[in-house]
Amino acid sequence: MTAIAGRWDPDIVNNVYLTTSVNLMDGKFWNSKENVVLSSYKIFGSNRLRTWNHNLMVLAIYLFVFNATCVFKIQYPLKD
After folding, report:
1. Can you say how many angstroms the Cα of residue 16 is from the centroid of all Cα atoms in its chain?
2. Residue 46, Cα to own-chain centre: how many angstroms?
3. What is d(CA 68, CA 75) in angstroms, rounded to the nearest whole number?
4. Could you read off the pLDDT of 7-63 as tens digits, one per residue?
5. 42: which strand partners?
6. What is the Cα–Cα distance from 21 to 42, expressed in whole angstroms?
7. pLDDT (tens digit, 9 = 90+) per residue, 11-25?
8. Domain boundary assignment for the chain
9. If we measure between CA atoms, which residue out of 44, 39, 40, 37 comes closest to residue 58?
10. Fewer CB near the terminus (10 Å): N or C of the chain?
11. 3-state DSSP assignment of residue 15
12. What is the pTM (predicted TM-score) of this model?
């Protein structure tokens, strides 16, 4: 356990209602095999990914597209 995690009381930090909701949605995900809001997993193609990894992948795509757009705009300015 890290020093930061050791300072937080899990009873105060964890939200029981949110934890229960995520657990219910995880069960729905495993039973239905389709993407469900608040689930810990996402289906991407034929792969099952953790939601955290899926979100990072989407963020990386957004950053790449934004960066490529900015580079293109700087190299080839549009004439107004």
Report:
1. 21
2. 18
3. 11
4. 777 666 677 777 788 888 888 888 887 888 878 888 888 888 888 888 899 999 999
5. 49
6. 16
7. 666 777 777 888 888
8. 1-39, 49-80
9. 44
10. C
11. coil
12. 0.60
